[in-house]
Amino acid sequence: MRPSDKSSRKFLASIHDVSPRFADEVDRLLDQLVRHLGGPKLAMLVVPDHWDSAPIAEDQGFQSRLRGWADAGVEMFVHGWAHRDDSRHSGALDGFRARHMTAGEGEFLGLDHATALARMTAAKKLVEDVTGVAATGFIAPAWLYGAGALSALPQAGFTMAEDHMKVWNPQTGAVLARGPIITWASRSRARIASSLLFSALARHALKPMRDVRVAVHPGDAHVPSLVASIDKCCAALLAGRRVARYADLAADHAATRDERAAISAS
Hints:
Blueprint: E1 10-18, H1 23-37, E2 43-46, H2 60-71, E3 75-78, H3 92-100, H4 113-131, E4 137-138, H5 147-155, E5 161-162, E6 166-168, E7 175-178, E8 182-183, H6 189-205, E9 211-216, H7 224-238, E10 242-243, H8 246-265
Parallel strand pairs: 1-2, 1-9, 1-10, 2-3, 3-4, 8-9
Antiparallel strand pairs: 5-6, 6-7
């Protein structure tokens, strides 16, 4: 299949920080994305207990909403446990990433293997028990993974993970999609300005890529300029692409692998 064919070019969207704390914002972002996608063909990144003060386990109403979204076809990712970084970072690089790439939310950047595995396992069980469907994968808060988290991913049973630049299968190491994810930041005027600039460039620069990913956060819903930018980005990058789920990445990778194996065997 030619790379230019629409059937092989995919657009993937996700809503981060899905939690009772941001229930209204998630509703608004879902409505906005559905207008572009034509339905709930997107991913939600679920935080079991955001900042240890919004436990899904104690909120029957939000559990019902999660089940309804899952039943409608929304993919459910585990997105950490508390989305808060309580680790002490000794390395210069991790310290820089913790300070400048997130506002104290890189929960899995400094965890050791055992702690990361325990949190992943507990979060996976909660999300799956609530929704009644298998979690599609794990995405670390702020897309930040330390060595402990990376080594725990396959043991926790996850077959898909994502960072800023790729989607991969932790069980095999296979890369399922490449390229920068487009996202927005709302916590300061400088962050808003920089994310508006990046998204404006990206919606043109990434057009040649086969697969593109867009991720939105609850804070985006409160900034009109970010809401408008999300609309522009979706409209521009959906042209010539099909709306896809993350599971489609794995299916396409498997099909390509089988096709190559068949050619080699012939």
